[in-house]
Design a protein that fits this description.
The structure holds two protein chains of two kinds. Chain A is an alpha/beta fold. Helices cover about 50% and strands about 5% of the residues of chain A. Among the domains of chain A are: about 65-80 and about 150-330 and about 340-355 and about 365-455, Methylmalonyl-CoA mutase (TIM Barrel); about 485-545, no CATH class. A five-stranded parallel sheet of chain A has the order 3-12-11-10-9. In chain A, strands 4-5-6-7-8 form a five-stranded parallel sheet, with helices on one face. In chain A, helix 10 runs parallel beside helix 12 (about 290-310). The chains are: A alpha/beta, B alpha/beta.
């Protein structure tokens, strides 16, 4: 059959195609994806000749999970609609959470302000000007109690975008649950807790890589024994892509990070199936519709094979690449901001067609500020329309078998595997990070892309084409300077009214645990229960582990 | 021949999103300026002492964390205090339109907002930054 097809394809090229091309050439000599991957004019059965349905795709819910991790996918249950939110004080954010839940959102996702992310209290000198600006300020358990006021933690799952101090925010969340009378085995959610991608892309680190990995493995171990429904790490490609990587780099570096965490867990003495089912992923969905769908499918296939073949996982749950997706913040433009609604819609469709487990759709105003309530509602409605009007979720993995999508899935898989192989050769992801390999690959890709936009090789509507000088005004959310004053008062009051002797004792115990090899989680929990602040606990670790500084690579 | 202008590209505050700062730093370098990059998480004090030690003509800052109303004026204040008011300060980031005149009043020479092209930035530097020597 294949030789007939080849002949037929050749004939079409020489007769029909050549005739057309002789009269009217194509618009461009070369067509590429957003990541500069070359796309052919036409894909035929010849491109997927070697595709083996059972081994390469499999049915959904079965190895290698290319078609999806559940056997019914969205026919059984839609993806979780989870809008990332947080700003101002805990009280401000609690109100936004109640609003989002009332609008039909099905999970919470907390954005923290920069001081919390970097392990400083709001009253620290380094926090000046930053309090409550890009997320909610959390200094002590008291703030966390306010943040989840009247939100039953056995009924919602919460994702927390927190990395270097993840263990502390998780401890606070667990104590809030306890105070609500919810036992830890009923608490579900996710801490991002992916420090490796911080060194690679987002750059919100506190301690050096190796002690940071120890904290993460402590959390994995604690979850296994006490909080079985918690996703301890959300291994994140999102920030790698936002930093300017290509789709294949996003996939390759993220999965290499995943391999790093699995190795660390095994080195601690856990068996792979004890902790791997609680690892989840977080990807970006950018504007190239098919490239993204192919990326998601390739990601599931690579992870399943890595877990089974490299790590000997037996539990299928260990092999499933479960992931959250966020549409691409970096694709949004300040010019003609209403165009962002369309970009987000296309990106969200890729995520759903790629089989995501949960989704955040960006709001149209996010290049200008945090989203207003109106903007975030429109972003949520985008998901609801895809879910309930478009018909997309009615069947599983509808692009399977497309000559193009299968070929592209194979190609992105191959490119991602090449990055993983390079990292293996360097001795693993930590060594690769220390050499600056992923950082420099991403830096080069991002500069190349920016140059392509400047030379009009890549179109950004409203920026380098179809420019319209009349300004579209959109309302934006401003965070007032009074937030800083209020929050400093809040934390000052707590620090004055708690039992400071007990706090000091807890911090001393924590320090001893950190210096030794004991799991630090129970000590952090004891400290937060006594209202030790985030900054104080991070200081204990800073003294013990030291701080990491930027290698200043350009 | 005139001495090459020296520009300090700085990333102040706690935010780690350095894609913009790095792309601008590379573009300035490719446009023929001498570029020094501070790296991340710099306090205003660190930036001002680097600017003086490196003897730069301008400081370019990228702020995406909403802390621009503190960080820009603070760097300008410290430059004056340390006797280097001639060093020009410009920058960019997620900065609402209504904050721009306030920053200009505080002495910021130019603010670039999302979507500014690299050429806009390098052209502006070429025609507006003066050698402090």
């Amino acid at each position: 059959m294949s030789s007939n097809l080849k002949k037929e394809y050749q004939r079409w090229k020489e007769e029909t195609l050549a005739q057309t091309l002789s009269k009217s050439p194509e618009r461009k000599e070369k067509f590429t994806t957003l990541s500069d991957h070359e796309i052919e004019r036409l894909y035929t059965p010849l491109d997927v000749e070697n595709l083996d349905y059972k081994n390469d795709l499999g049915n959904p819910g079965e190895f290698p999970f290319t078609r999806g991790i559940h056997s019914t996918m969205y026919r059984g249950r839609l993806w979780t609609m989870r809008q990332f939110a947080g700003f101002g004080t805990a009280k401000d954010s609690n109100e936004r959470f109640h609003y989002l839940l009332k609008q039909g959102q099905t999970g919470l996702s907390v954005a923290f302000h920069m001081p919390t992310i970097m392990g400083y209290d709001s009253d620290h000198d380094r926090s000046r000007g930053e309090v409550g600006k890009v997320g909610v300020s959390i200094d002590t358990l008291a703030d966390m109690e306010t943040l989840f006021d009247k939100i039953p933690l056995d009924q919602v799952t919460t994702s927390m975008t927190i990395n270097a101090p993840a263990s502390i925010l998780w401890a606070m969340y667990l104590v809030v649950a306890e105070k609500q009378g919810v036992s830890w085995d009923k608490v579900g959610g996710t801490t991002q807790n992916d420090i490796l991608k911080e060194y690679i892309a987002q750059k919100s680190w506190i301690y050096p890589p190796r002690p940071s990995m120890r904290l993460i493995v402590d959390m994995m171990e604690f979850a296994k024994d006490h909080v079985p429904r918690w996703n301890t790490i959300s291994i994140s490609g999102y920030h790698i892509r936002e930093a300017g990587s290509t789709a294949a780099q996003e996939l390759g570096f993220t999965l290499a990070d995943g391999i790093g965490y699995v190795q660390a867990g095994i080195e601690r003495g856990m068996s792979v199936d004890e902790f791997a089912p609680r690892l989840s992923f977080f990807f970006n969905s950018h504007s190239d519709f098919f490239e993204e769908i192919a990326k998601f499918r390739a990601g599931r296939r690579i992870w399943a094979r890595v877990m089974k073949e490299r790590f000997g996982a037996k539990n299928p749950k260990s092999m499933m690449c479960r992931f959250h997706t966020q549409t691409a913040g970096c694709s949004l433009t300040a010019q003609q901001p209403y165009n962002n609604v369309i970009r987000t819609t296309i990106q969200a469709m890729s995520a759903v067609l790629g089989g995501t487990q949960s989704l955040h759709t960006n709001s149209l105003d996010e290049t200008l500020s945090l989203p207003t309530e109106e903007a975030v509602t429109l972003a949520l409605r985008t998901q609801q329309i895809i879910a309930e009007e478009s018909g997309i979720p009615a069947t599983i993995d509808p692009f399977a078998g497309s000559y193009f999508v299968e070929k592209l899935t194979n190609e992105i898989e191959a490119k991602a595997l090449e990055y993983i192989t390079n990292i293996d050769k360097m001795g693993g992801i930590i060594e690769a990070i220390e050499k600056g390999y992923p950082q420099q690959e991403i830096g080069n890709a991002s500069y190349k892309y920016q140059r392509q936009v400047e030379s009009n090789d890549k179109t950004v509507v409203g920026v380098n084409k179809y420019i319209d000088d009349s300004k579209q005004e959109v309302p934006i959310l401003l965070i007032g300077e009074e937030v800083e004053k209020v929050q400093i008062q809040n934390v000052t009051k707590i620090k004055a009214s708690r039992d400071n002797q007990k706090v000091e004792a807890c911090l001393q115990n924590l320090k001893q645990a950190a210096l030794g090899t004991q799991n630090v989680m129970p000590f952090i929990i004891e400290a937060v229960r006594e209202y030790a602040s985030l900054g104080e606990i991070c200081d204990v670790f800073r003294e013990t582990f030291g701080e990491y500084h930027d290698p200043k690579w350009l | 021949m005139a001495k090459k202008l020296r520009i300090l590209v700085a990333k102040p505050g706690l935010d780690g999103h350095d894609r913009g700062a790095k792309v601008v730093a590379r573009a300035l370098r490719d446009a023929g300026f001498e570029v020094i990059y501070t790296g991340l998480h710099q306090t205003p004090e660190m930036i001002v002492s680097a600017a003086i030690d490196e003897d730069v003509d301008a400081v370019s800052m990228s702020v995406l964390s909403g802390a621009h109303m503190f960080l820009f004026p603070e760097v300008i204040r410290l430059l004056k205090e340390k006797g280097a008011p001639e060093i020009s300060v410009f920058g960019g980031g997620i900065i609402p339109d209504e904050d721009i005149p306030k920053l200009e009043d505080a002495g910021v020479a130019k603010i670039f907002t999302p979507g500014a092209s690299l050429k806009d930035i390098t052209d502006w530097v070429a025609s507006n930054v003066q050698s402090t020597k």
